[in-house]
TrEMBL record:
The organism's taxonomic lineage, starting at the top: Eukaryota, Metazoa, Chordata, Craniata, Vertebrata
Keyword Nucleus: yes
Homology family: Belongs to the krueppel C2H2-type zinc-finger protein family.
Name of the protein this chain belongs to: C2H2-type domain-containing protein
GO CC annotations on file: nucleus
Biological source species: Poecilia latipinna
Known role: May be involved in transcriptional regulation.
Amino acid sequence: SLDENNRIKEKSYLTLPFSCLTCGKSFIQKRSLTSHMRYHTGEKSFMCETCGKSFNKKSSFTSHVITHTGEKPFSCLTCGKCFNQKHILNCHMRTHTGEKPFSCKTCGKCFRHKNDLNSHMRIHTSEKPFSCLTCGMGFNTKRNLTNHMTNHTGEKPFSCITCGKSFNQKGHLNRHMRTHTGEKPFPCMTCGKCFNQRGSLTSHMRTHTGEKPFSCIICGKGFNAKRNLTNHVRNHTGEKPFSCGTCGKGFSHKKSLTNHSRKVMGPR
């Protein structure tokens, strides 16, 4: 019958003739199986004559060679930016389309890049595979470890072109630059108030939701921002980290020191 013939054809399409004896994966073409086998054997047949690096796939080798020539044959039709590899162009295109195809199965958050999803997953698993050789502190991304290392080296490679102040992280410089430009790119969708830092917006949003995730372990009082909890705890500990440079008097809060300094200095 016609249905039976269709089933036979369908079965023949599903049966791939070249199978890997190691893992059982099947391929339509023999060369695809040959390429796949290199994953098991570790063979890297394609070597770059410029730097000596070896590859197990010709496509990976070809993409690598372009990094030496400076050639960027893949162009973005939207903004004209060029790339040396097609998959990098595909990733870039998501900045225009807003597409976020990689979603977290735990919380549903979506990401443009698979690496970002992998890093995010470590928040749920608490995995911190990147460790500081100096202090042993662990991090869930290599970028966070690199940023942390500057705390030990004292390196501050990012300088403000307006005032010359230097920072150990580019993100800190970007945040500082907004004090000069007045830019406030983080608006509250509820009341329209804008902020120059994402963290400030997050704290502000809790005034609408009533959320107070930071609790005092001494009295149980809740706060919507960590800095407010830190200030509150000093009421219990008596810590006074802010000292007057004129009379030496200590204060628990920076605002109290500022008010005191005005009284000591008098009107100007």
